[in-house]
Amino acid sequence: MNKNILLLVDYRLHFYSSVRSRGASMNLAELKKYFEYEGYELQIKNFKNIDFRKSKYTNQIVLYQSSEDRGLLYKDYIEDILLALTYQGAILIPDFYKFRAHHNKVFMELLRDLNDSSKIKSLTSKCYGTCEDLVSDIENIELPFVVKPASGALSAGVHLVNKRSDVKKVVRKVSRSFHSIDFLKNRINKLIRKKYAPKSSHRKKFIVQEYIDNLDGDYKILIYNEKYFVLFRKVRKHDFRASGSGMFSYPETLPDGLLDFAKEVYDAFNVPFISIDVAFNNGIFYLLEFQFVSFGTFTLENAKFYFILENKKWTIRREDSILEKEVAKSISRFIKNNFE
Prior knowledge:
Elements: E1 4-9, H1 28-37, E2 41-46, E3 61-63, H2 73-88, E4 91-93, H3 96-100, H4 105-114, E5 125-128, H5 131-135, E6 145-149, E7 159-161, H6 167-175, H7 180-192, E8 206-210, E9 217-224, E10 227-234, E11 248-249, H8 258-269, E12 273-281, E13 284-291, H9 298-301, E14 305-310, E15 313-318, H10 323-339
Parallel strand pairs: 1-2, 1-3, 3-4
Antiparallel strand pairs: 5-8, 6-7, 6-8, 9-10, 9-12, 10-11, 12-13, 14-15
């Protein structure tokens, strides 16, 4: 197996993020050093420097990041590069489907549906492309439910719908794609064409997800190879959302089975690392959300301990962890397990 790994950085020369300082990237020199410890040479390039006319990337292992820019415009550019690399036979880590799920809850839910693990599917959801799609389907949806826009973080745009009379108002807000020219064209066409079906002004895709009642918080779990970092997030007062609440703790005592559940999710997706949000209610674990690329690293970088499975028993190890080291170790193990 080729021991050369290509790592792609963005226009700011960033790879992922770090909470060491505001807007910081991983330390690329440190990352390169830790990959050398694992026996790999790291070649760093900007996305713009990928040249398919001069270079072949067949069987080239490629690490990359996503983007959370407003409107996901730069993410769309990254997608083009990654698709072209995949087309030529490069090995993306993680694979392209995992990238597609970043800031795309619709595709994230489709990945859930496609997975063979029944535990991953303990939470139900449905995806929609327009407000009209949901309105025509509303009798098949059980109240209450949660509406989430496809992109967004820190619970932005997330709404709980308790009454059927509120459905249209909430969904129209989440899916609004109004454009004045399109609106005028619709009005004119409705006047001059008898059977004209107007185009929707609410075409931002979204999901409708089962509501889990009486939660006091959820668990943010970051998994890097054998290390499990767990953060508990309390829900806001008079709210149902834990993400973005800012009320965090690192619990040493966890619900029985939580880490086993997390491990099953991690193993089912076959990725080097993962971020998952898990709720626990009435003896059932629910996988709320999951990300495989460019997720926040706060949980790891601020943890004073992590959980590890030793001799079929979960134990705590008390030590600080270095983000770059854990990324290099997780990816090198993933390569050895899957491609060597």
